[in-house]
Amino acid sequence: MMKIKLVKINRNFILATALALFLSLSWVGTVSAETEQTNSYLALEAFSNSIADIAERVGPAVVNIDTVRMVKTQFPSFEDPIFRRTIPQKGTGSGFIINQEGYVLTNEHVVRKADTIKVTLSDGREFDGEVIGSDVTSDMAIVKIQADHLPTVTLGDSDRLRVGQIVIAIGNPYGLQQTVTMGVVSAKGRSIPAGTGGNIYRNFIQTDTAINPGNSGGPLLNIKGEVVGINTAIIPYAQGIGFAIPINIAKRNIDDLINLGKVRRSWLGVYIQEVTPEIAEQFDLTEAKGVLVGDVIEDSPAEEAGIKRGDIIVKVNDEEVNSPEELQDKIRSIEIGEKANVEIVRDGKEISFVVKIGEMPTIEEEGEFPKEKVFSVQTGLKVEVVTPEIAKELELPWLKGLVITEVIPGSSADDMGLQPGDVILDANRIEMSSIDKWEELINKLEPEDTLLLMVFRNGRTYYVPIKVEKID
Length: 472
What we know:
Elements: H1 11-58, E1 62-74, E2 84-99, E3 103-106, H2 108-111, E4 116-120, E5 126-135, E6 140-145, E7 166-171, E8 179-194, E9 199-207, E10 219-221, E11 227-234, E12 242-246, H3 247-259, E13 266-267, E14 270-274, H4 277-282, E15 291-296, H5 301-305, E16 312-316, E17 319-320, H6 324-332, E18 339-346, E19 349-356, E20 358-359, H7 363-366, E21 381-385, H8 388-393, E22 402-407, H9 412-416, E23 423-427, E24 430-431, H10 435-443, E25 450-457, E26 460-467
Antiparallel strand pairs: 1-2, 1-4, 2-3, 3-6, 4-5, 5-6, 7-8, 7-10, 8-9, 9-12, 10-11, 11-12, 13-20, 14-15, 15-16, 16-17, 16-18, 18-19, 21-22, 22-23, 23-24, 23-25, 25-26
């Protein structure tokens, strides 16, 4: 039988061992903290160097664009031609070289109507620039300079951008050349107004990267140094809000701009608007879906196929469309000359049309790009029959309908911008040919009922739902 010998452990020995263990752990903790801090410094230094490397690598392909536009002016209160003069209006922006033969991509608004263009490279060389292609709708232009073997950018994939990712801008804000700023992608798919013409820029990248006047046309870069956007717009009264055109949109248009001087776009040829619940009710739809055709352009693909005013477009090539933007995007994705199956609802029946997609006329040929009109409910109109005199004064192509003579201030009609001179062609899908017919229809309506008007203005028609108010 084995005997176990018990050993008495000295208390001081235990305390000494514990203290040694504590000190060793503390030392390990100190070393670990110092190592972690060192690693953090190294990571920050690597990140900082990567931004600097991008600026150093891409910067030579970013250019400064100075423009001069001669503008005629007239001294106030003087009508005599002697007081007229032409003055130079200067502008500045940015751009970036997309190939070695001297093609520079920038914003259309940077070089719009410029009489002279000077392009300055990062190394100080200056060249005269010539606009060889521009597009107002996408706000893009190609400027050509007579040079070769130039540094170029690499175009990335803007579809792969994620909200929160780091992006870098290089440009010439306020003429300060080669300025580098950094931020993140704040949002994608933004739509913003484009000046005073009523155009809307769509699918923009929003970023908090510092973008200022003069940055327009410069590149927005990802952390690989690839161009993912064209810096385009700012909100003057806001901080940390800038917008860029996704580079994938630009890539689709570059060849057209260089070879044709313009962008070819697929075209259906309809004026469209959102289907609101009020419009859905008047068209006997169970829900507010699809896109309402407010007007059809003469000799357009839509007219040739048989699509009419008042049709509700619900599908294109078996894919649902429930907003004007969805319909426009779908049509633009179809090649010019290809056939598309367009499904509509007309008088409660579904009908399919085969439409050969055409090329959208330029602004000079057809005016503004056909865009949806969004209207709210309204009331407060006074009307009278269109007479030959009124038809002549308003340059109407026919003698029919009721002309709006007064819009009551404070009414929803006033809020929505209906104007004297607008012509009502039908109400609740009944042709309006007399005041008696108008009053007969109005007298059957109850307060809060919806009255659907088809209004003619500037050669186009659109539908407007009106909420009938109680007369006090």
